[in-house]
């Protein structure tokens, strides 16, 4: 008998360690031989702690399991959810980037290879840098960090830049509320990120890489450090990558609690040991990035998707998706939902299907009022926008953005004026301070929303004007996109803004 | 005043990272891990070692939410205030905990037992409200649950 329990921090946060301790105690008491394998997450967070038991006929799922349930789970009398892979939430997915996550032991390279790992790197090692970049371009992969910039074009710029040293920097700052895909893949399948970074290095001619990983993720930092050490020991990293004579090595660096350091130039300053102030562009980081040298900055999911593109081929990957949004996107379903977790699917599924069918509506059972998509800089959509297909251009067309693909669902008890105020407050707390519309504007924004709450109808116009100034006059998207949640709340839910209500009367 | 480590204690910590590209953040994290805060004397040591002005080093320290100039309480509780946790009641949870402990955000109880800080997302957004106590995350937390977590940690 084999037993699988996730070691993902979401599983641990809801008691996985206690369940494992109870399982061990029960196995010892019964004198039963069984192996407990700690995997990454299957992404079905609402079922955590999830226990999977394989008695030779596939993995049967049980969850959420409490320590007191383990005897029943072991003897098979507890009610099972059936085979994990047949749970509708799981069965409906297209798992490419997350294919191994939840299946394998994250820190076992042998397991990794047995499930397709390193096949992409081996293929890339037989290709020229130009061919590698062309493959990524052909896959249609776009940056998963938020801006959706074509990854192949970025790599090509770095490839063509002349320099003695170039860098691959992985953006693992994942500060958006409602997102955890980066964390989940780093904790659940860290070698795929490492492999993706090595391929990026081969493609653009960079010999060194860094992962800038937020300090709020201590488990991910620990797993990544272990994985890098294991990869180095196995010759996946180092002076002679898989015996090819090519070299690539990397380090994990910890952030220090600043949201803005997810912005790529701020991140580079931070990595250099400076204040995380945003840099003006140009110069592009691709030409003058870390320490002034050509640098690829890519999100975790962008890089972690590279191995499957090389394993299965660009055409295979590009066959999924919708329009210019090719491939799959790990949608993170969070907040007030019945079924929260990570759902990887081809681009194109309508927002409403994700919220109502996949997530099963709210956890509270009350009607959905709003969904914020794309983190604290993303717009709030009401049900009237539930037809919007999940794609970069489609969301843009509706006045929103998909960002890092987090969905935060709110039920009807949400106060949208409060959410708009929070967006401004967050911007004020996290502003890097470089430009006035963001640094001062966000503070004025909070005050103006308080005036609206107090019934001052004239303040509504002030808020709209202020948002225009922030949009037009901010150097980066922190100041520039904070108006998305604010204005979408104001325009989509005017009934929550006392001042607006009175003005209308 | 809390005891300040000497320059002799600080110097080796700083030097251990000087071979890195961009060593300042790793140094600051290491100092805080060892001493619980960034000692004042360390600014001079870092400035000298990195050929920066003391003002520049102070500028870096003050930019980041993580670095402290004084030690925190014996335990550090981070409560998530971000949107996904708000959607499942984190505001009420925070109000109840802050009230119970008698502190405001960033405050430390008078007995030095615990410091409470806001955090904007722990990546536990599908199992909120979330908190982190001394580096360990907890999800689906309600007020009684939070008290139990604190008690179990001996707070
Ligand atoms: C305020 C702000 C925060 C950001 N946070 C992140 C982040 O946490 N992770 C990320 O990958 N990109 C983040 N970005 C986007 C990055 O600037 C950049 O576009 C991205 O890392 C590029 O990688 P990609 O092309 O693979 O998406 C942020 C941007 C802004 C303006
Ligand atoms: S918009 Fe805000 S965070 Fe961005 S550069 Fe300007 S001040 Fe800094
Ligand atoms: S919003 Fe609270 S953990 Fe992400």
Helix content percent band of chain A: 40-55%
| Oligomer class | heterodimer
- Percent of residues in helices of chain B: 40-55%
The succession of helices and strands of chain B, N to C, reads HHHHEHHEEEH
Overall body shape of chain B:
elongated
Number of domains of chain A: 4
Uncertain runs of chain B: none
Largest beta-sheet details of chain B: 4 strands, mixed
Number of separate domains of chain B: 2
Biggest chain contact:
A-B, 66 and 42 residues
For the largest sheet of chain B, list the strands in their spatial order.
Answer: 2-1-3-4
Helix segment count of chain A? 23
* Strand residues, percent of chain A: 5-15%
CATH hierarchy, class of the largest domain in chain B = Alpha Beta
What structural class do helix, strand and pairing data of chain B support? alpha+beta
CATH domain fold name of the largest domain in chain B: Glutaredoxin
Mean pLDDT of chain A: 97
Estimated share of beta-strand residues of chain B? 5-15%
Q: What is the H level of CATH, i.e. the homologous superfamily of the largest domain in chain B? A: Glutaredoxin
Radius of gyration of chain A: 23 Å
> Globular, elongated, flat, extended or rod-shaped: what is the shape of chain A?
globular
């Amino acid at each position: 008998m084999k037993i699988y329990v996730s070691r993902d921090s979401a599983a641990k946060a809801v008691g996985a360690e206690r369940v494992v301790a109870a399982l061990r105690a029960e196995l010892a008491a019964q004198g039963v031989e069984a192996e407990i394998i700690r995997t990454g997450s299957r992404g079905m967070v609402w079922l955590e702690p999830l226990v999977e038991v394989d008695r030779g006929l596939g993995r049967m799922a049980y969850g959420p399991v409490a320590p007191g349930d383990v005897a029943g789970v072991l003897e098979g009398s507890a009610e099972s959810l059936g085979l994990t892979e047949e749970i509708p939430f799981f069965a409906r997915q297209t798992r490419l980037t997350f294919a191994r996550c939840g299946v394998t032991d994250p820190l076992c390279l042998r397991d990794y290879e047995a499930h397709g790992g390193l096949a992409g790197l081996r293929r890339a090692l037989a290709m020229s840098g130009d061919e590698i970049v062309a493959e990524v371009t052909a896959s249609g992969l776009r940056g998963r960090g938020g801006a959706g910039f074509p990854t192949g074009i970025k790599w090509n710029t770095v490839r063509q830049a002349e320099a003695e040293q170039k860098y691959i920097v992985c953006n693992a700052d994942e500060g958006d509320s409602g997102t955890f895909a980066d964390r989940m893949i780093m904790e659940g399948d860290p070698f795929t990120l490492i492999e993706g970074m090595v391929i990026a290095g081969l493609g653009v001619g960079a010999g060194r890489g860094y992962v800038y990983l937020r300090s709020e993720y201590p488990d991910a930092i620990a797993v990544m450090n272990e994985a890098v050490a294991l990869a180095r020991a196995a010759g996946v990293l180092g002076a002679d990558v898989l015996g090819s004579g090519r070299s690539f090595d990397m380090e994990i660096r910890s952030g220090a609690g600043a949201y803005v350091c997810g912005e790529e130039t701020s991140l580079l300053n931070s990595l250099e040991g400076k204040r995380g102030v945003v840099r003006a562009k140009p110069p592009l980081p691709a030409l003058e990035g870390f320490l002034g040298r050509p640098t690829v900055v890519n999100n975790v999911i962008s890089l972690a998707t590279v191995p499957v593109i090389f394993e299965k081929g660009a055409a295979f990957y590009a066959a999924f998706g919708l329009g210019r949004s090719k491939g799959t996107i790990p949608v993170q379903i969070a907040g007030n939902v019945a079924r929260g977790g990570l759902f990887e699917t081809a681009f194109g599924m309508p927002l409403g299907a994700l919220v109502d069918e996949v997530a099963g509506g709210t956890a509270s059972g009350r009607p959905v009022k709003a969904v914020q998509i794309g983190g604290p800089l993303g717009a709030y959509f009401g049900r009237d926008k539930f037809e919007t297909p999940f794609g970069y251009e489609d969301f843009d067309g509706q006045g929103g953005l998909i960002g890092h693909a987090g969905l935060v669902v709110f039920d009807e008890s949400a106060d949208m004026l409060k959410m708009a105020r929070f967006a401004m407050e967050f911007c004020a707390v996290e502003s890097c301070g470089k430009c006035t519309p963001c640094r001062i504007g966000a503070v004025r924004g909070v005050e103006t929303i308080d005036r609206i709450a107090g019934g001052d109808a004239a303040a509504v116009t002030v808020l709209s004007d202020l948002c225009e100034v922030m949009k037009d006059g901010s150097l980066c998207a922190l100041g520039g996109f904070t108006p998305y949640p604010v204005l979408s709340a104001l325009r989509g839910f005017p009934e929550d803004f006392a001042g607006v209500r009175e003005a209308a009367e | 005043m809390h005891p300040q480590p000497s320059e002799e204690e600080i110097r080796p910590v700083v030097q251990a990272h000087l071979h890195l590209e961009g060593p300042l953040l790793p140094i600051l994290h290491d100092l805080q891990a060892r001493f619980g805060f960034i000692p004042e004397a360390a600014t001079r040591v870092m400035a000298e070692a990195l050929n920066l002005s003391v003002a520049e080093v102070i500028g870096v320290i003050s930019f980041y939410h993580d670095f402290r100039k004084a030690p925190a309480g014996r335990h550090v509780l981070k409560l998530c205030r971000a949107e996904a946790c708000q959607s499942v009641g984190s505001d009420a949870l925070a109000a109840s905990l802050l009230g119970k402990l008698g502190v405001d955000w960033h405050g430390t109880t008078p007995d030095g037992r615990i410091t409470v800080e806001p955090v904007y997302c722990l990546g536990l957004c599908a199992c909120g409200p979330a908190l982190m106590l001394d580096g360990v995350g907890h999800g689906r937390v309600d007020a009684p649950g939070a008290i139990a977590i604190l008690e179990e940690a001996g707070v």
